[in-house]
Each structure stands twice: as structure tokens, then as C-alpha cells.
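Re: the multi-chain job from yesterday

Posting the exact lines I submitted so nobody has to dig through the queue logs.
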Amino acid sequence: MDFKSLKITKTAKEKSGGGADLFTVGVSPHVRDADTTTRIMGWVIIALLPLTVYGVYIGGISAFIVIAMSIIGAVGAEYVMQKLMHRAVTVGDLSALLTGLLLGLTLPPRLPFWMPLIGGIVAIVLGKQVFGGLGHNIFNPALVGRAVIFISWSRLMTTSYLSSPQAAVVQTSAIKSINAVTTATPLQTMHNVRDGQAALSASRYYGPLFLGNPWGCIGEVSALLILLGLGVLLYNGLVDWRIPVSYIGTVVTLSWILGMDPLFSALSGGLLIGACFMATDYVTNPMTWWGKVVFAVGCGIITVVLRFYSNLPEGVMFSILVMNGFTPLIDRYLKPRRFGAKRVVSAA
Amino acid sequence: MGLTRQIRRTLLTKGGVHPKTHKYTASMKIAPGPNPERMVIPLSQHIGAPCEPVVEPGQRVLVGQKIGDSKAFVSAPVHSSVSGEVKSIGQFPHPLGNHGLAVEIASDRSGEISPDVRPAGDRVNMTPDEIRRAIREGGVVGLGGATFPTHVKLSPPEDKPIELVIINGAECEPYLTGDHRLMVERTADVIEGALLIRKAVGAKRIVIAIERNKPDAIEVMNDSRKGDDFEVVVLPARYPQGAEKTLIKSVTGREVPAGGLPMDVGVVVDNVGTAVAVRDCIYEGMPVVERIVTVSGDGIAGRGNLKVKIGTSFHELIEYCGGYKGEKGKLLMGGPMMGLAQYTDSVPVIKGTSGIIALAGETVFRQEPAHFVCIRCGRCVRRCPMNLLPYQIGDYCDAGMWEQLEGLNIEDCVECGCCSYICPTKNPLVQLIKVGKEGLDKRKKKIESLSSD
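And the result, C-alpha cells for all chains:
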């Protein structure tokens, strides 16, 4: 009897003696983690909320308009672009909203309303959609938007920090004396200090930088709230701690070597929000943990070089954008060690 | 000392995920299964050559009587699980997909045991060769689900000495609790099986590895330790802790070389159920005709750990447990992480059926086929126990960019499914990788055939 040539003469149903209905089939795993893209984006937005609310409180109605316009620009551009390109509209995944919010937080509160709008549009169109949308962009979209505004209207971007009446609540007497000297950002002031144009102690800025700093971008208003936001992200396992730690660590170490107050270098400028919310952007940083460390240390070095040796007071934005460009290269060369490639030390 | 070792073990265990365990049956005693009238026993229940039938339609068979065998080394004979009459031999639905040759038996439900079933000897008197031969005759295969013939596993070449036997009691798949119950209820038999395996491979040490979430099994194992005959190692609870290479790394710190086998690092890993089967086939002479099956899931009215005769149909077993509940969804053989979805419940229980999980329609994960957008969160990279880059391999497999796969070690993938599980965009990464492995194979064969012309 040649069993291999046996034909199937009865269907499974007839042979089974029961169980007529068929089941859903699919490839394992048959269960999935509950986390989704929308949920991740939502958590980052929640992490940014305290900072946003406080930034609007300090910056006043004009700060609110800046954030609102950049969000409208980003979400609107995403919607229009996807409609024009006949793609599924993915505004609901909150990623455009997050881009708009991040852009708004990195802008000074006194910009004319059309500028963040343009920034938001540029961020989505040039920063994201031209590359193919979410997940395909090389550079952080919010920073692309900001860079374009920064280069196009650099004077407005660096002098729109004038404090609002609400800002007075956080002004201690120490700050008032600084306030008499300048309305520039603390980092700008220290830049001037180095150039011999002013004489101030960095430690006088600690308090306001931590709790309420009216001279800076909307999102630079409080280091404490940025760190709170980072805490939310770390608690939910959404970002790798190595990026902010190695980024800030590099800046602090190098600044200290170059003679700047280390704590001041960490708290001032856009470093904290950049290290916690911009450099940690999934799409534009490397995939392996040591790739992330290389990325973050690179950001730190470039930030310090720009802060100390360029005409710009701050270098966070350009440092992250430059390192974004290196991400594919880092991913190509820093791969995980192959399992079983070499023996490891025995534990037993 | 003990603490630092625990910490080192935790540090050594990279990757993995923590799906909801759903181990509702963990404290339910092993209960007898149904005794149906009709059995369908597939002749291929293992990795390796399928068996040829050695019985004929109309012939009377008894429990433990051999009904299929093969001359190939990598194969394991198949035995009847009931007494009765062979009705037909033909193609029947098989839980590993499509159809396969099987023996259909009409059971007389008396359970008359074949005279072939007699003890083979005992551990002290038997030589390693005799133990291996008895294991082969008993049709013992890896009962964790892989179904690799055990006698082959226990025949390492002379240049690969085995130093350590690991008994795998991790049972990291959600829902499944059969191994857990065996460790609690048949502790002495698990240990005896381990000692037999140790003798067969000439190893010095035995480690019984158990996940931390089974404290009763750990306790009872530790309590039955006499002298230094074995060691109990407590592992962190995570999936895939029980995957062979992951398990060996967690227990010993050694990594099985890429493309290699556990014997390359002096280790043999056998499942708890396999150890019990080894013991049963040597001390009682009873081949593998029954196994513990966990029946669970929200699509079934009842649940439990049942001792089921090989060849019982899923349908029969589910009816025995109270039938279906809710809208029909998925029917899985094995756990939800690596189990196989069945299209029909007329397939029989085979040696590799560690569980039957029915997921109700409402809870089945469904997604419209769409273009999955990777947001590069890196979770698949962090969770991959084999240190791969699933997002990249998946991308290249999807696009058929075979040259780009060079150097990404796709062949190392153990298909545990952690990447698919954890992906926030629900990208079916492990599916893409499976497809890619096949695509690569086809391409290689094509190139070979072209170059040989």
C-alpha cells in the first residue's frame, strides 16, 4: 500500500465528527503589547504639559499664541500634505501635534504670530513629509522648523525674550539686579560676560533657571518641570536614560574644563529640553544603546563648541540636527554583538 | 554568594518581554482526560522522518503497542494510546498544518495494555546505550513543543562531552501550566528522569531551572534534594526564558555559538515533561501515549491540566471541558506567543501539544492589513534575545532586498515573537522574518542551480 499517493477524499469537516465552524488563523504571537504609537505620543505630550502650562503662565497670552500657531501650522500641514499626496491622514496619531508643541516650546514668547505658523508648516513639510512621513525623516522636524525660522529672522529670534508682567512673580531681588543689566537670555549674558561686556556671577541664575526663568524660550522656563517631564518618560520606559545623561554629562564636563560654571551650563539655554525631548526623538536617534551614547556625546561636544567658539550663544539645536545626520551612519556601524559570537564569563 | 549569583543571572538575561501570564490553571491538579471512541494518531509527531505504519486496517491494537516506526535515526516511533481496532490509515488534518498520514482507531475504551509494555530496567543496571535504546523505543520526543527525538539529543558525538543537564521548568509561555504541575505533583519522577538523562549523556551535574513565578515548584524541588544530585536554579520570569539558548545563557552564562547546538557548550536541555516521559518509559515501559495538556483561554467554558491520550481530537477535549464560550475566535496549539492557530478543531492532540488555548472572538488581536510605519522606538532591538535588529531585517524581508540581509544574522532568529509582541505600530516582524528565511532559502537554491548548470 503506497500511503504517500493517498488522496484526501473527505474534507476536514466530514472526518472530524464535529466542530463544523472554522477558526481565525494568523501567525504567532497571538497576543500583543497594549502600547501604540498614539499612546507613546500622548505620553510625551502629557510629560510636556506642566512645562507648557507654566511657560504660558510666565510668557503670557503671546506665549499661548506662539504655541497654538505652531501646533496649527504643524497639524494643518500634515493634514493638507497627506490629502494632497492621497495618503491616509494620520493626524490622529498625535505625532504632528507633538511636533508643533515641541516647536512652540523652543520659540521665544514674543514672536509675531505668523512666524510659528510658518515654523510649524516647514517642520512638517520639509522636516517630515518630504521624507515619506512618520518614521522616515532624518532630522528632528521641530528643530528643522526652528532652524528655518532662526536663520530667516535671527534678530527677532534672539531678542523676543522681554519678560511679561506675570514674570515678575518669579523675580527675586537677585534677579531684579540682573534685570537692570540686560533682558537677554542668561546664556547670552554669560556670552557677553566672556567677551568682557558684563560682569555677573553664574550662580545668581540657579534659582530662576530652576523655578522660573523669564528670559528664554517658552520651554526653557523651568529646569524643574523639564526634569519632571523626563521623569514621566523614564517611568513609562519611553526614552533611554543614556541620551539625556550622556548629553548633559558631556556638556557639563567640557564646560567645566573650559571654565564655565558646570551647573549653569546644564541649566541654561535649551540644553535640558533639547537633551530630554529633542535628542530622545525615536525616529532621529540610533537604535542600539551604545549608538545612542555616541549620538548624545556627539551632541554634547558640538553644543559646547558652538557655545564657546561661535557667534551663537547656544548650540543645542544645531548640535542635534548635525548628529541626526550621523544617525544612519552610527546605526550602520554600531550593531549589537551577535549572540554566540564569543564566550562570556560563566555565572555558575 | 547566592545573592550575587542571582544578580549576575538577572544581568545576563538580556531582552525578553512580559506578556500577561494568564496562568489560571497553575493550582489545578492534573486530571484525567476524556476517553473517546475515535482516535486519530498521526504518524509524524516529531522533527525528522515520518513513521511508516506497522499495523493494518482491521487489526486489533492495545495500549502501548507500536503502530508506526521508521528506520531513520532522526525519528521516533508512534504507539497506540487506546485498545481497539484500526479502522483506517490515511490522510487526516494535522495540527502542524494541512494533512498528514495517520492511523484511525476505534477504541473499545477498555484500556487493555499491550504485553510489550514492560519495565526496561533501572538506572543502576542499564548502560547509557540501553537507556537511549529504551527511550527511542518509547517514542520519547521533546515534549516542550519542539518534538525533537530525545534519543538523538542524548547521543552527542565523542568530541562534544556533556558536562551539564538542564531540566527546563521555565514554562514561560502564557497560560501553560503542565510542566509546573508535573514539578509539583510528580517531583520524584522528574528527578528520576533527570538522573536517567544524566547517565545517558555521562554528565556530571543536573540543574533544574524554574522561573521565579512558580514558588511552590521551587520549594518542593529544593525539599526533595538529597546531597548534591542536582541544583535548583531560580530564573527571572520573562518570555522567552525557556528558549533553549536563552535558558543556557541564563543558567550558565555560556552562549551557544551561532549556528551551533547546546552540546557545543557541553549542555543538554530537556523539558520537565520529557524527563517524566523518560522515567515512565524505562521504569514502567509505557511509551509516550499520553501527555499533560493545559486547556485554557477565555473561549472555553472550563479549564484545567488534563492527562490526554495522544490522538484525542481537540473538539472532543474542548467538549469535555464544557465546550466553547463566546464568539468563535482563535484556537491555538501551544501558548499564545509561539502557538499555532488551527482552522479546525478536528485535529488530534499530538506529542507536542503542550496546551490548547481558545481565544474568544472579542479578544483576538486583529488588524487591517496596512502599511506598518516603524517609528524606530528600538523596542524590538532591546527585547530581542538573540541580539538581532528585527526592524531592519523585517524591512529588508518585506522589500525582498536579500543582499542587504547579509551580516544581519537572520538565521539566528529563534522566532520567539518578542519583536512582534512589543512593537507599538503592530508590525508583524517575526512573520516578515519567517517569510524572509524562506525567501533566502529559495534564492540560495536558485543560485546553486544556476551555478551548477
